[in-house]
Design goal:
This protein is an alpha+beta fold. It contains 18 helices and eleven strands. A four-stranded mixed beta sheet has the order 1-2-7-4. A three-stranded antiparallel beta sheet has the order 3-11-8.
């Protein structure tokens, strides 16, 4: 482990690193910063965080991540439950364990299968067309705006259709449910706070109660609408529709004729809020980081645009219609997928916190064993993804590493790419996230050039110069998952002229 203070453990070390960060930088940077200071700590190390939290076992090795997420599935850390409780009430697919998790994961799996996701692409195209028009408006005005605000609104509209076949219309109007959800997230904590005042915040429970009331009222009404549609034999495509059918298929007693089964409705309420949170939060951030990295690497942008010309044709005004008619065209975007995977390697939005167990030890390559009892086992995706022991040219943006054959020096190490985690508790919506970003790029990347406007933003806000992490101004900040700082201020220009000023859907 890193040098240990006899009284204060690793608090001084952590404080010195966090103090060097710009405002709100994400805590997921910490293990990698420690590895940079102490290069021999490139697999696993303990952190003594008393009195603020339990001992932490930080893992930055893919082989050791495999041990507690794939070979043995350790339970989710209680901090994750603490964070999600105001949102889902502790009965969501992220924090449930054992047989009850297996049952509900199986019920909701059909709505997230790769084949089913493809049937939802035409609806995604409709929402991305609105996003495209928003970019067009900003290009015409030449103004600075925050790309992630637009991206968040888009992805929340998409996930609303996917999960409930419901239009939130967040891109064009106010929506009370999505407003309550985003406000709720800003008040959620992990229960391990450096600021002691966070433990006695008397306003937080009131805010949580009010936001929960608003969300549940809205979603409950929509769930009843979906149930009535199914009863009327309407064609069902949403995640909730398919989950309800799977639930009813388990037992004919669940087939109520007038109202949705109460047990299913309670679980559905929790999962809908979870899916909307996770489905828009990390997808939005991932998409913005893709745009950001392409703007910094013109050769990659040129190659990606050429691939889109090859797959969709050069008349940009027909792309939406062609994609709606044949969603499987997305499967031909091999370089585009490589770009997305590389962006998610460099900017993984989440990590994998698990609870240590008395009978479980991690083993490193030299055979040393590390007890996990009473520890927060912190599978740190950023640390794994930026570990030079496992990634050649680790800090470079190289989509090519995802296209080379096995045996090539760039070929990724097994189990080293984990933005959606691996094993039985992997992200149920990972295929949806990848498809969403592909559709966003297909309808925008050839028409617009997006460039960050951090210099103008910092000047406007009076921010000090040199705000960055590892030289990156678009560093990840804490807001649920990791998001680009300041919602990514940018300007957008027209990259080319199309045959139509509007995308045809």
């Amino acid at each position: 482990m890193p040098p240990h203070h006899p009284l204060f453990g690793h608090i001084p070390l952590s404080a010195s690193i966090i103090g060097s960060f710009p405002p709100y930088a994400h805590g997921n940077y910490l293990p990698d910063q420690i590895r940079q200071r102490y290069p021999h700590l490139d697999s696993v190390f303990y952190l003594d965080t008393w009195p603020f939290g339990p001992p932490v076992l930080a893992v930055v090795s893919p082989d050791m991540m495999y041990q507690f997420t794939q070979d043995r599935n350790l339970p989710k850390d209680k901090g994750m439950r603490h964070f999600l409780k105001p949102l889902t009430g502790e009965q969501d697919l992220v924090t449930l364990e054992g047989p009850i998790w297996k049952r509900w994961r199986a019920i909701f799996n059909p709505g997230f299968s790769a084949n089913h996701i493809m049937t939802l692409v035409p609806g995604m195209v409709e929402d991305v067309a609105v996003f495209r028009d928003i970019l067009q408006s900003h290009a015409e005005k030449g103004d600075m705006f925050c790309l992630e605000e637009a991206s968040l609104n888009l992805t929340i509209d998409i996930i609303g259709k996917v999960v409930m076949d419901h239009k939130f219309n967040s891109q064009t109007s106010y929506n009370d449910m999505t407003s309550a959800l985003r406000n709720q997230l800003s008040w959620c904590t992990y229960g391990i706070e450096i600021n002691p005042l966070e433990y006695i915040n008397v306003i937080r429970p009131i805010v949580h109660w009010n936001n929960t009331r608003r969300m549940n009222r809205y979603i409950s009404r929509e769930l009843d609408n979906r149930y009535n549609s199914i009863q009327e034999k309407a064609k069902s495509k949403s995640v909730i529709d398919l989950a309800l059918k799977a639930y009813q298929a388990e037992d004919s007693a669940n087939k109520s004729t007038t109202t949705m089964d109460a047990t299913f409705k309670d679980f559905a309420l929790s999962q809908v809020k979870l899916f909307i949170f996770a489905g828009h939060d990390t997808t939005s951030a991932g998409a913005v980081f893709v745009y950001h990295l392409l703007s910094k690497h013109p050769s990659a942008l040129t190659r990606l645009r050429a691939e889109h010309d090859s797959v969709f044709g050069t008349d940009l005004s027909t792309t939406a219609a062609r994609l709606s008619a044949d969603p499987h065209l997305l499967n031909q975007l091999h370089y585009t997928l490589a770009v997305i995977k590389e962006a998610l390697r460099l900017f993984p939005a989440v990590s994998a916190p698990r609870g240590g167990q008395p009978d479980f030890f991690l083993s490193d390559a030299e055979g040393r064993q590390y007890p996990t009892e009473h520890c927060l086992v912190w599978g740190n995706h950023f640390g794994v993804h930026h570990n030079p022991r496992h990634w050649p040219r680790v800090e470079e943006f190289l989509p090519e590493r995802w296209l080379v054959p096995e045996g090539d020096p760039l070929y990724p190490t097994k189990n080293a790419w984990r933005p959606f985690e691996r094993g039985p508790r992997n992200c149920v919506g990972q295929e949806l996230a990848l498809v969403e970003i592909k559709v966003m790029l297909a309808l925008t990347i050839r028409e617009f050039t997006i460039m960050n406007a951090y210099d103008e933003w910092d000047s406007l806000k009076g921010n000090p110069k040199g705000m960055n992490v590892n030289g990156e101004r678009a560093y990840m900040i804490i807001r649920g998952g990791g998001h680009p700082a300041d919602f990514y201020p940018c300007k957008v220009n027209l990259a080319t002229k199309t045959k139509s000023s509007k995308t045809e859907v």
